[in-house]
Amino acid sequence: MSLTTRQLSFHYQAGEPVLHALSLDFTRGRVIGILGANGCGKSTLFMNLLGVLKPQQGQVLWNGEPLKYDKKSLRQLRQQISMVFQDPDQQIFYTDIMSDIAFSLRNLGMEEHIIQQRVNQALALVDAESFRHKPIQYLSHGQKKRVAIAGALVMDADYLLLDEPTAGLDPAGRQQMIHIIERIVAQGKRVVISSHDIDLIYQVCDYLYVLSQGRLRCEGSEREVFLQSPVLHEAGLVQPWLVKLHTELGMPLYKTEQQLFAAHNGQPLMREAL
Fold first, then answer.
1. The whole model's pTM is what?
2. How far apart are CA 190 and CA 188, in angstroms?
C-alpha cells in the first residue's frame, strides 16, 4: 500500500498558502518523520492525507490513484490510514475504555467476537491491559494517549499518523511510547510522525522530510538530514544531542543513548573528548 503526494498545495480561505507543491513518498521508510517549526504546515498536511482537507492544487495518491472525496471512498480510506491527535481528548468520546476503542468497529457493523479480539490485541500492544476497566476520566494523559492509539490500531490500518506522540509525557511515558511505535512497525505497519521531539525523531525514524513555511527544505535518512546543521537552523530546528556529540566533539555517531553507553562501557564521556 502506497501513500504519496504530488505537487500538493493548500491554503485556507482567502489566506496565504500553507503547503507549497509538496511531493512526498511515505513508502521511503517504515517510520517517516515530518519536521518543522510551529506553523510550517505539519498538521495541515496530515489533514490532507486523511482527506479531511482537499488541496487546491496537486493530489494525495493512495496506491497511485488520486483520492476520491465522496463519503464512501473516504470511509474506506480511513480504514487504511488512521490518525492519533496530539490531544487524546479530541478523539476519546466514551467514559469506558472498551466501548471507546470498539466504537469504530461497531460502526462498521463488524461481528462482536472479532471486535473483542481486535480490542484485546490493541490493548496488549499499547500496554493498557492493566487499566482497561478504569473509567477514562481517571486516566493520566499518557494513559489516554495509549487508549487513543489503541482506538486507531483496531482498524488494522496500513498507516498510522501520530501527531506529537510524546507531548506531555514524562521520561518513562516517552520511553514507553518509543516501545509502542517499535511494536507497531514490527507488525508490518508504517508510521508517520509529526513531532517537535527531535531526539525521538532521530531515534525511531528512518526517513525524514523537513518543512519550512510549507515548503520542503530537505529529505533523506535521519543521519543525512540531521548532519545538515545550516538547513536545520533555517527551518528553526536543532540537531539531536547524539548528533551534536558527533559534530561538536568528534565522537562516533550513535543512533540511541544505549548504543553510546554500551560503546563506552560506563566510562565518563568527557574523558575521550579531553
1. 0.90
2. 7
